[in-house]
Amino acid sequence: MSVRSTLSTLPAFFDLRERSGFDFISLDDLSKVMFSIKSREELKRLAKERGKKLPLRFSEYEKIVIVNKVLDRSEKTCISVDKDEYSSEPRPLYSFWVQTLNNSEPYKELLKSQPAFLVDERSDWRLAGLRVCRGGYLILGGDALVAWSANR
Fold it and tell me: Got the DSSP string for 26-37?
């Protein structure tokens, strides 16, 4: 078993005009799309409408990202948190706000209660997280535990 973050590979249904299909998307790539979050049951109904069937590998996920549009330009998404709260050790993410040009609610639904750890800058491109609006980088999910352990 690994502590690596599940945020680096989120299950996704791409519901685009040209075509629809199942794949995975990373937290970093969410800034390049418009998306929402749906339950597995809601997705089953949507997929059926599109003539698709939920793949077996997606049956273990409760929440699935629905990609509605690929943006022409990546957004400059950032997260606002109390920096002191997350700088000494990983803590569950509760009180936060995501600054985005699109709807921030899907981010909140995805990130709520995820372990979070603040670092000055992103030292490894593999660590899932978001840029902090007032400086720094908030590492999220299992990667927060990895970064905290490496920084001790």
Answer: -TGGGGGEEEEE
Strands 78-80 and 97-99: antiparallel
C-alpha closest to that of 77 among 103, 105, 108, 101: 101
pLDDT of residue 152: 78
CA–CA distances in Å: residue 66 to residues 4, 103, 144, 152: 23, 13, 25, 37
CA distance 88 to 86: 6
Expressed in angstroms, the distance from the first to the final Cα of the chain is 22
| pTM reported for the whole predicted model | 0.86
DSSP assignment string, 71-112: -SS----EEE--HHHHSSS-EE--S-EEE-SS-SHHHHHHHT
Q: What is the dihedral of CA 70, 53, 44, 140, to 10 degrees?
A: -50
The partner residues of 142 in beta bridges, in order of sequence, read none
pLDDT of 78 strictly over 80: yes
pLDDT at 119: 93
DSSP letter at 58?
G
Mean pLDDT score, 79-84: 93
Domain definitions of the chain by residue range: 6-70, 78-151
